[in-house]
Amino acid sequence: MIIKFTPDDVTEALVAANAFQDFNEARGYKDRGAEKDLTKIEQRDRQIVGHVGHLLIARRYHLPYAPKLGDFAQIDIEFPGGDGGMEVRASIRDNPRLPINPRDIERGKLALPFVLIRVSLARGIAEILGWLCGWQALERPDRIWRGPPQNTWYVPAPYHSVQSLDDWIESGAKPHWMPKDFDPNRIGERPLPFADGAPE
Fold this sequence. Notes:
Mean pLDDT is about 85; it is low at about 195-200. The protein has helices spanning about 10-25, 40-60, 100-105, 135-140, 160-170, and strands at about 1-5, 75-80, 85-90, 100, 115-120, 125-135, 145, 150-155. The chain is about 30% helix and about 20% strand. Helix 1 (about 10-25) packs across helix 2.
């Protein structure tokens, strides 16, 4: 799913991204989701890409874009009334993987959809690549863990289709099911029928 935009279309996201980065720099916070320590300019660029991705997803589904400065536990795109929402993961990479990190576990977000969107600021084009619930991503046998400074799991395609996300939103976006026996502290230990080597 391709989305085209101009700088004027995403002014709101640019303002928010700069405010967030100013907040982080004033407190000495660093972006730990990268493969290396980033310069302040690189960190600001990542903030911009992330906020543009959030804004584009919010607009596509007619949901509020309302980032809360300093609230790191906030759901990226919250549904009106506070009943759930979506996490958005934006990337500039040609072949990005869906990132999930331990903070998502701590913040109780694993039943939410995590939507992956690729953003090209220079070209004014974004592409929604798909989505997985957080718990589904963590149970994928092909996930890859990257230690410090990232401390993140990366999950490659395939993902659920954009159409399935559209259908979920249009049908009322009821909370997603999560297995009762899923334990985020024992990732990969629950036998799954689709996992290599799982008992039949």
